[in-house]
Amino acid sequence: MAKKILVVAEHRDGALKGITKEALTAALQVADDAAEVSAVILGQGVDALADELASWAPGGVVLFEGSEVEQYTPEVYVKVLGDFIKESGAELVLTGNSYQAIDYFPRLAAVLDAPLVPDCTAIESDGDKLVFVRKVMNGKLDARCTVNGEGPTLVSLQQGAFPPSGAPGGGAVEKKAVDAGGIEPRKILSIEPGETGEVDLSEAEIIVAGGRGVGDEEKFKLVFDLAEALGGAVGASRPPCDSGWVESFRQIGSSGQVVAPKLYIALGISGAIQHLVGMRGSQCIVAVNRDPNAPIFQEATYGLVGDLAEIVPALIEAVKESQEA
Ligand SMILES: Cc1cc2nc3c(=O)[nH]c(=O)nc-3n(C[C@H](O)[C@H](O)[C@H](O)COP(=O)(O)OP(=O)(O)OC[C@H]3O[C@@H](n4cnc5c(N)ncnc54)[C@H](O)[C@@H]3O)c2cc1C
Q: Is the CB of 217 under 6 A from ligand 1?
Protein backbone atom coordinates (compact mmCIF):
# COMPACT_ATOMS: atom_id res chain seq x y z
CA MET A 1 0.00 0.00 0.00
CA ALA A 2 1.11 3.54 -0.65
CA LYS A 3 2.74 5.19 2.33
CA LYS A 4 3.18 8.65 0.83
CA ILE A 5 0.42 10.10 -1.31
CA LEU A 6 0.67 13.47 -2.98
CA VAL A 7 -2.27 15.28 -4.57
CA VAL A 8 -1.54 17.90 -7.23
CA ALA A 9 -4.12 20.66 -6.84
CA GLU A 10 -5.77 22.59 -9.62
CA HIS A 11 -7.39 25.98 -9.33
CA ARG A 12 -9.08 28.48 -11.57
CA ASP A 13 -10.45 31.98 -11.07
CA GLY A 14 -9.46 32.05 -7.41
CA ALA A 15 -11.09 28.74 -6.43
CA LEU A 16 -9.91 25.16 -6.01
CA LYS A 17 -11.40 22.90 -8.67
CA GLY A 18 -13.93 20.43 -7.27
CA ILE A 19 -11.93 17.61 -8.81
CA THR A 20 -9.02 18.45 -6.46
CA LYS A 21 -11.22 17.71 -3.44
CA GLU A 22 -12.26 14.47 -5.12
CA ALA A 23 -8.58 13.53 -5.53
CA LEU A 24 -7.94 14.30 -1.84
CA THR A 25 -10.93 12.16 -0.90
CA ALA A 26 -9.47 9.29 -2.95
CA ALA A 27 -6.07 9.80 -1.30
CA LEU A 28 -7.59 9.71 2.19
CA GLN A 29 -9.48 6.52 1.33
CA VAL A 30 -6.36 4.80 0.05
CA ALA A 31 -3.83 5.97 2.65
CA ASP A 32 -2.70 3.65 5.43
CA ASP A 33 -2.43 6.71 7.62
CA ALA A 34 -4.12 10.02 6.77
CA ALA A 35 -0.97 11.88 7.85
CA GLU A 36 0.71 10.64 4.69
CA VAL A 37 -1.67 12.59 2.46
CA SER A 38 -0.15 15.87 1.33
CA ALA A 39 -0.83 18.28 -1.49
CA VAL A 40 1.05 20.64 -3.74
CA ILE A 41 -0.25 23.80 -5.39
CA LEU A 42 1.43 26.19 -7.84
CA GLY A 43 0.45 29.79 -8.31
CA GLN A 44 0.81 33.38 -7.24
CA GLY A 45 -1.44 35.07 -4.71
CA VAL A 46 -3.08 31.75 -3.84
CA ASP A 47 -2.32 31.66 -0.09
CA ALA A 48 -6.03 31.36 0.75
CA LEU A 49 -6.34 28.35 -1.57
CA ALA A 50 -3.28 26.72 0.01
CA ASP A 51 -4.89 27.22 3.46
CA GLU A 52 -8.14 25.66 2.23
CA LEU A 53 -6.18 22.79 0.74
CA ALA A 54 -4.37 22.26 4.05
CA SER A 55 -7.68 21.49 5.73
CA TRP A 56 -7.97 18.54 3.34
CA ALA A 57 -4.34 17.39 3.46
CA PRO A 58 -3.31 16.33 6.97
CA GLY A 59 0.27 15.72 5.74
CA GLY A 60 0.60 19.39 4.76
CA VAL A 61 0.68 21.51 1.65
CA VAL A 62 3.60 22.83 -0.36
CA LEU A 63 2.87 26.05 -2.18
CA PHE A 64 5.21 26.91 -5.05
CA GLU A 65 4.86 30.63 -5.48
CA GLY A 66 6.25 32.73 -8.29
CA SER A 67 5.40 34.72 -11.39
CA GLU A 68 6.48 31.74 -13.52
CA VAL A 69 3.45 29.78 -12.27
CA GLU A 70 0.97 32.62 -12.09
CA GLN A 71 -0.61 30.98 -15.11
CA TYR A 72 -0.49 27.32 -16.01
CA THR A 73 2.12 26.38 -18.59
CA PRO A 74 2.99 22.69 -19.06
CA GLU A 75 6.79 23.07 -19.32
CA VAL A 76 7.13 24.88 -15.99
CA TYR A 77 4.61 22.62 -14.24
CA VAL A 78 6.50 19.53 -15.40
CA LYS A 79 9.85 20.95 -14.24
CA VAL A 80 8.66 22.14 -10.82
CA LEU A 81 6.48 19.11 -10.08
CA GLY A 82 9.06 16.66 -11.45
CA ASP A 83 11.77 17.99 -9.10
CA PHE A 84 9.37 18.12 -6.17
CA ILE A 85 7.99 14.60 -6.62
CA LYS A 86 11.53 13.17 -6.74
CA GLU A 87 12.48 15.09 -3.59
CA SER A 88 9.26 14.27 -1.71
CA GLY A 89 9.55 10.51 -2.16
CA ALA A 90 5.83 10.32 -2.99
CA GLU A 91 4.81 6.81 -4.02
CA LEU A 92 1.40 7.71 -5.40
CA VAL A 93 0.66 11.02 -7.12
CA LEU A 94 -3.02 11.77 -7.72
CA THR A 95 -4.78 14.50 -9.63
CA GLY A 96 -8.14 15.03 -11.32
CA ASN A 97 -8.39 14.00 -14.97
CA SER A 98 -9.01 17.56 -16.16
CA TYR A 99 -8.06 19.05 -19.53
CA GLN A 100 -5.05 20.57 -17.77
CA ALA A 101 -3.95 17.21 -16.39
CA ILE A 102 -4.45 15.55 -19.78
CA ASP A 103 -2.04 18.17 -21.11
CA TYR A 104 0.85 17.88 -18.63
CA PHE A 105 0.48 14.64 -16.60
CA PRO A 106 1.79 12.31 -19.35
CA ARG A 107 4.82 14.60 -19.84
CA LEU A 108 5.42 14.53 -16.09
CA ALA A 109 5.26 10.72 -16.13
CA ALA A 110 7.76 10.66 -19.01
CA VAL A 111 10.19 12.99 -17.21
CA LEU A 112 9.96 10.88 -14.04
CA ASP A 113 10.07 7.64 -16.06
CA ALA A 114 7.04 6.68 -13.98
CA PRO A 115 3.91 4.68 -14.83
CA LEU A 116 0.75 6.67 -15.52
CA VAL A 117 -2.77 5.29 -15.04
CA PRO A 118 -5.22 7.81 -16.52
CA ASP A 119 -8.90 8.41 -15.83
CA CYS A 120 -9.35 5.96 -12.94
CA THR A 121 -12.81 5.37 -11.54
CA ALA A 122 -11.84 3.34 -8.46
CA ILE A 123 -8.82 2.28 -6.45
CA GLU A 124 -8.94 -1.12 -4.77
CA SER A 125 -6.41 -3.09 -2.78
CA ASP A 126 -5.19 -6.60 -3.43
CA GLY A 127 -2.92 -7.60 -0.57
CA ASP A 128 -0.07 -5.12 -0.61
CA LYS A 129 -0.86 -3.84 -4.09
CA LEU A 130 -3.14 -1.10 -5.26
CA VAL A 131 -5.44 -1.96 -8.15
CA PHE A 132 -6.48 0.93 -10.38
CA VAL A 133 -9.81 0.53 -12.16
CA ARG A 134 -10.47 2.34 -15.42
CA LYS A 135 -13.17 2.14 -18.05
CA VAL A 136 -12.16 0.83 -21.46
CA MET A 137 -14.00 0.07 -24.72
CA ASN A 138 -16.13 3.21 -24.39
CA GLY A 139 -17.10 2.34 -20.82
CA LYS A 140 -18.29 -1.21 -21.57
CA LEU A 141 -15.50 -2.92 -19.62
CA ASP A 142 -13.56 -2.27 -16.42
CA ALA A 143 -9.80 -2.78 -16.69
CA ARG A 144 -7.97 -3.51 -13.43
CA CYS A 145 -4.34 -2.42 -13.51
CA THR A 146 -1.49 -2.94 -11.10
CA VAL A 147 1.91 -1.33 -11.39
CA ASN A 148 5.26 -3.04 -10.98
CA GLY A 149 8.54 -1.56 -9.80
CA GLU A 150 9.74 1.18 -7.52
CA GLY A 151 9.14 4.91 -7.61
CA PRO A 152 6.09 7.08 -7.99
CA THR A 153 2.93 6.01 -9.80
CA LEU A 154 0.92 8.81 -11.40
CA VAL A 155 -2.84 8.39 -11.44
CA SER A 156 -5.50 10.77 -12.73
CA LEU A 157 -9.05 10.31 -11.47
CA GLN A 158 -12.27 10.54 -13.43
CA GLN A 159 -14.50 13.41 -12.45
CA GLY A 160 -17.26 12.27 -10.11
CA ALA A 161 -15.65 8.94 -9.23
CA PHE A 162 -14.79 10.01 -5.65
CA PRO A 163 -17.49 12.35 -4.24
CA PRO A 164 -15.78 14.70 -1.76
CA SER A 165 -16.08 13.37 1.78
CA GLY A 166 -15.33 16.42 3.91
CA ALA A 167 -12.10 18.03 5.03
CA PRO A 168 -10.43 16.14 7.90
CA GLY A 169 -8.34 19.23 8.82
CA GLY A 170 -4.87 19.46 10.24
CA GLY A 171 -2.25 20.28 7.58
CA ALA A 172 0.28 23.12 7.50
CA VAL A 173 1.37 25.18 4.50
CA GLU A 174 5.04 25.47 3.49
CA LYS A 175 5.98 28.03 0.85
CA LYS A 176 8.72 27.32 -1.66
CA ALA A 177 10.17 29.49 -4.42
CA VAL A 178 9.74 28.28 -7.97
CA ASP A 179 12.90 27.09 -9.71
CA ALA A 180 11.90 26.85 -13.35
CA GLY A 181 15.45 25.83 -14.30
CA GLY A 182 15.74 28.58 -16.89
CA ILE A 183 12.61 27.49 -18.73
CA GLU A 184 10.84 30.51 -20.18
CA PRO A 185 7.15 30.16 -19.39
CA ARG A 186 4.95 30.51 -22.46
CA LYS A 187 3.51 33.96 -22.80
CA ILE A 188 -0.28 33.71 -22.64
CA LEU A 189 -1.48 36.66 -24.71
CA SER A 190 -5.17 36.15 -23.97
CA ILE A 191 -7.59 33.44 -22.95
CA GLU A 192 -10.68 33.32 -25.10
CA PRO A 193 -13.49 31.32 -23.49
CA GLY A 194 -14.88 28.64 -25.77
CA GLU A 195 -18.55 28.17 -26.51
CA THR A 196 -19.58 27.00 -23.06
CA GLY A 197 -22.73 29.04 -22.64
CA GLU A 198 -23.88 30.52 -19.40
CA VAL A 199 -22.74 27.63 -17.21
CA ASP A 200 -19.86 25.25 -16.90
CA LEU A 201 -21.61 21.85 -16.97
CA SER A 202 -18.61 20.15 -15.39
CA GLU A 203 -19.07 22.29 -12.25
CA ALA A 204 -22.91 22.39 -12.21
CA GLU A 205 -24.62 20.90 -9.14
CA ILE A 206 -27.94 20.25 -10.92
CA ILE A 207 -28.28 19.22 -14.57
CA VAL A 208 -31.51 18.58 -16.43
CA ALA A 209 -30.69 16.75 -19.66
CA GLY A 210 -32.97 16.03 -22.57
CA GLY A 211 -32.71 13.33 -25.20
CA ARG A 212 -34.31 12.42 -28.51
CA GLY A 213 -37.46 11.48 -26.59
CA VAL A 214 -38.11 15.16 -25.88
CA GLY A 215 -39.35 15.39 -29.46
CA ASP A 216 -38.10 18.55 -31.13
CA GLU A 217 -36.50 21.94 -30.60
CA GLU A 218 -39.73 23.59 -29.49
CA LYS A 219 -40.55 20.89 -26.95
CA PHE A 220 -37.01 21.20 -25.57
CA LYS A 221 -38.27 24.36 -23.84
CA LEU A 222 -39.71 21.99 -21.18
CA VAL A 223 -36.16 20.89 -20.33
CA PHE A 224 -35.09 24.52 -19.94
CA ASP A 225 -38.16 25.28 -17.81
CA LEU A 226 -37.45 22.45 -15.37
CA ALA A 227 -33.77 23.45 -15.18
CA GLU A 228 -34.76 27.03 -14.48
CA ALA A 229 -37.21 26.01 -11.76
CA LEU A 230 -34.48 23.96 -10.06
CA GLY A 231 -31.70 26.51 -10.63
CA GLY A 232 -29.82 23.98 -12.73
CA ALA A 233 -28.06 23.77 -16.07
CA VAL A 234 -29.31 22.18 -19.29
CA GLY A 235 -27.53 19.23 -20.85
CA ALA A 236 -28.42 16.85 -23.67
CA SER A 237 -27.68 13.50 -25.20
CA ARG A 238 -26.16 13.50 -28.67
CA PRO A 239 -29.26 13.45 -30.92
CA PRO A 240 -30.64 16.85 -29.75
CA CYS A 241 -27.19 18.38 -30.38
CA ASP A 242 -26.79 16.71 -33.78
CA SER A 243 -30.29 17.86 -34.74
CA GLY A 244 -29.50 21.44 -33.75
CA TRP A 245 -32.21 21.59 -31.03
CA VAL A 246 -29.54 22.75 -28.56
CA GLU A 247 -25.92 23.89 -28.74
CA SER A 248 -23.23 21.21 -29.02
CA PHE A 249 -21.48 22.28 -25.80
CA ARG A 250 -24.46 20.80 -23.94
CA GLN A 251 -23.66 17.26 -25.11
CA ILE A 252 -22.89 14.85 -22.32
CA GLY A 253 -21.13 11.57 -22.96
CA SER A 254 -18.10 9.95 -24.47
CA SER A 255 -17.81 12.55 -27.22
CA GLY A 256 -19.19 15.38 -25.06
CA GLN A 257 -18.61 16.48 -21.49
CA VAL A 258 -18.16 14.28 -18.43
CA VAL A 259 -20.28 15.63 -15.59
CA ALA A 260 -20.84 14.70 -11.96
CA PRO A 261 -23.58 16.89 -10.48
CA LYS A 262 -25.41 16.23 -7.23
CA LEU A 263 -28.64 15.79 -9.23
CA TYR A 264 -28.94 14.61 -12.86
CA ILE A 265 -32.39 14.46 -14.42
CA ALA A 266 -32.51 12.50 -17.69
CA LEU A 267 -35.61 13.21 -19.79
CA GLY A 268 -36.31 10.97 -22.77
CA ILE A 269 -32.78 9.54 -22.76
CA SER A 270 -32.48 5.79 -23.34
CA GLY A 271 -29.16 5.27 -21.52
CA ALA A 272 -26.77 4.28 -24.30
CA ILE A 273 -23.30 3.50 -22.99
CA GLN A 274 -21.83 6.54 -24.76
CA HIS A 275 -24.18 8.74 -22.73
CA LEU A 276 -23.77 6.85 -19.45
CA VAL A 277 -19.99 7.27 -19.36
CA GLY A 278 -20.55 11.02 -19.25
CA MET A 279 -22.98 11.14 -16.32
CA ARG A 280 -22.90 7.97 -14.25
CA GLY A 281 -20.72 9.71 -11.63
CA SER A 282 -23.74 11.86 -10.68
CA GLN A 283 -24.76 11.51 -7.04
CA CYS A 284 -28.53 11.19 -7.69
CA ILE A 285 -29.96 10.26 -11.08
CA VAL A 286 -33.64 10.71 -11.88
CA ALA A 287 -34.81 9.23 -15.18
CA VAL A 288 -38.09 9.91 -16.97
CA ASN A 289 -38.83 7.52 -19.83
CA ARG A 290 -41.96 5.92 -21.22
CA ASP A 291 -40.15 2.63 -21.84
CA PRO A 292 -39.91 0.69 -18.53
CA ASN A 293 -37.06 -1.36 -20.01
CA ALA A 294 -34.91 1.62 -20.98
CA PRO A 295 -31.31 0.97 -19.80
CA ILE A 296 -31.18 4.37 -18.08
CA PHE A 297 -33.34 2.89 -15.30
CA GLN A 298 -30.51 0.55 -14.35
CA GLU A 299 -28.39 3.57 -13.48
CA ALA A 300 -31.17 5.70 -12.00
CA THR A 301 -31.65 6.37 -8.30
CA TYR A 302 -35.30 7.20 -9.05
CA GLY A 303 -37.20 6.25 -12.19
CA LEU A 304 -40.47 7.65 -13.52
CA VAL A 305 -42.13 5.61 -16.24
CA GLY A 306 -44.40 7.73 -18.41
CA ASP A 307 -44.70 10.46 -20.98
CA LEU A 308 -42.36 13.32 -20.20
CA ALA A 309 -44.82 15.77 -21.74
CA GLU A 310 -47.11 15.00 -18.77
CA ILE A 311 -44.53 14.34 -16.07
CA VAL A 312 -42.25 17.37 -16.57
CA PRO A 313 -44.96 20.07 -16.24
CA ALA A 314 -46.12 18.33 -13.04
CA LEU A 315 -42.54 18.31 -11.75
CA ILE A 316 -42.14 22.02 -12.53
CA GLU A 317 -45.39 22.73 -10.69
CA ALA A 318 -44.27 20.68 -7.68
CA VAL A 319 -40.88 22.44 -7.55
CA LYS A 320 -42.54 25.87 -7.69
CA GLU A 321 -45.03 24.91 -4.99
CA SER A 322 -42.26 23.66 -2.70
CA GLN A 323 -40.37 26.92 -3.24
CA GLU A 324 -43.41 29.00 -2.36
CA ALA A 325 -44.20 26.94 0.76
C1 LIG B 1 -18.60 7.06 -31.31
C2 LIG B 1 -19.91 7.47 -30.69
C3 LIG B 1 -19.90 8.47 -29.75
C4 LIG B 1 -21.11 8.87 -29.15
N5 LIG B 1 -21.08 9.85 -28.22
C6 LIG B 1 -22.22 10.18 -27.55
C7 LIG B 1 -22.22 11.15 -26.51
O8 LIG B 1 -21.22 11.78 -26.19
N9 LIG B 1 -23.39 11.40 -25.88
C10 LIG B 1 -24.57 10.75 -26.19
O11 LIG B 1 -25.60 11.03 -25.54
N12 LIG B 1 -24.58 9.84 -27.19
C13 LIG B 1 -23.46 9.56 -27.87
N14 LIG B 1 -23.51 8.65 -28.88
C15 LIG B 1 -24.83 8.18 -29.35
C16 LIG B 1 -25.38 7.06 -28.48
O17 LIG B 1 -24.92 5.82 -28.97
C18 LIG B 1 -26.92 7.06 -28.53
O19 LIG B 1 -27.34 6.96 -29.86
C20 LIG B 1 -27.54 8.30 -27.91
O21 LIG B 1 -27.02 8.52 -26.61
C22 LIG B 1 -29.05 8.12 -27.82
O23 LIG B 1 -29.61 9.31 -27.38
P24 LIG B 1 -31.04 9.32 -26.70
O25 LIG B 1 -31.03 8.45 -25.50
O26 LIG B 1 -31.41 10.74 -26.51
O27 LIG B 1 -31.97 8.74 -27.86
P28 LIG B 1 -32.70 7.31 -27.98
O29 LIG B 1 -31.74 6.20 -27.78
O30 LIG B 1 -33.44 7.36 -29.26
O31 LIG B 1 -33.69 7.29 -26.75
C32 LIG B 1 -34.81 8.09 -26.65
C33 LIG B 1 -35.57 7.65 -25.42
O34 LIG B 1 -36.65 8.50 -25.21
C35 LIG B 1 -37.75 7.73 -24.74
N36 LIG B 1 -38.94 8.49 -25.07
C37 LIG B 1 -39.46 8.78 -26.30
N38 LIG B 1 -40.52 9.56 -26.21
C39 LIG B 1 -40.73 9.77 -24.88
C40 LIG B 1 -41.70 10.50 -24.15
N41 LIG B 1 -42.67 11.20 -24.74
N42 LIG B 1 -41.62 10.48 -22.79
C43 LIG B 1 -40.65 9.78 -22.16
N44 LIG B 1 -39.71 9.08 -22.81
C45 LIG B 1 -39.74 9.08 -24.15
C46 LIG B 1 -37.64 6.42 -25.48
O47 LIG B 1 -38.31 5.39 -24.78
C48 LIG B 1 -36.13 6.23 -25.52
O49 LIG B 1 -35.68 5.46 -24.43
C50 LIG B 1 -22.32 8.24 -29.51
C51 LIG B 1 -22.30 7.21 -30.43
C52 LIG B 1 -21.13 6.84 -31.03
C53 LIG B 1 -21.13 5.73 -32.03
A: no
Q: Is the CB of 237 under 6 A from ligand 1?
A: yes
Say if residues 114 and 101 touch (Cβ distance below 8 Å): no
Whole-angstrom Cα distance, residue 109 to residue 82? Answer: 8
**What CATH number matches the domain at 5-177, 3.40.50.620, 3.40.50.2300, 3.40.50.300, 3.90.79.10?**
3.40.50.620
Domain boundaries, the chain: 5-177, 201-324
Looking from the CA of residue 308, the nearest atom of ligand 1 is 42
Residue 212 C-alpha to ligand 1 middle, in angstroms?
6
Backbone angles phi, psi at 313, to 5 degrees: -60, -35
Do 5-177 and 201-324 have matching folds?
yes
pLDDT in tens, 194-211: 665 556 788 899 999 999
Distance (angstroms) between ligand 1 centre and the Cα of 315 equals: 22
289 CA distance to ligand 1 middle (Å): 11
Tell me the per-residue pLDDT of 266-324, one tens digit each, with 9 for 90 and over.
Answer: 999 999 989 998 999 899 999 999 999 999 999 999 999 999 999 999 999 999 999 88
CA angle 261, 40, 55 (to 5 degrees): 65
Determine if ligand 1 sits within 6 Å of the CB of residue 261.
no
On whether the CB atoms of residues 117 and 155 are closer than 8 A, the answer is: yes
| Residue of 220, 275, 308 to mutate, ligand 1, most atoms within 8 A of C-beta | 275
Q: What is the CATH number of domain 201-324?
A: 3.40.50.1220
Question: How many beta carbons lie within 10 A of that of residue 137, not counting itself?
Answer: 9
pLDDT for res 192: 78
pTM above 0.85, yes or no: no
Ligand 1 proximity of 183 Cβ (cutoff 6 Å): no
Going from the Cα of 236 to the center of ligand 1, the distance in angstroms, rounded, reads: 9
CB atoms within 10 A of CB 177: 8
